[in-house]
Design goal:
Radius of gyration: 23 Å
Structural class: alpha+beta
Helix content: 10-25%
Order of helices and strands: HHEEEE
Largest sheet: 4 strands, antiparallel
Strand order of the largest sheet: 1-2-3-4
Number of strands: 4
Shape: elongated
Oligomer: single chain
Number of helices: 2
Distance between the termini: 61 Å
Length: 95
Amino acid sequence: MTGPWPVSPPASRPTAPERRKAAAAQQADALRAGLTPAQLMTLEALEIFQWRLAFVRRPLFQTPIPVLFDREETRYVVIEEDGTLNEQPTLQLRA
């Protein structure tokens, strides 16, 4: 209904918490946290050849185990604590 009184703006909805995921750079930094210097050096070398750090397993009281996939995501490798590349890991991945 219209009239000579001022029209009040519609009530604003309460804002919902942010649901978007963190930026890729923040996720990459979080994955790299805790890796040994040798693992980081090997990781940087593999990223030149478009290998991607997919995830890092963090077993209790052991060094982190970074897992990388190639650009086609058909192969994966593990970087050992000393920075060596394990192309035949015993790691079981879910399908």
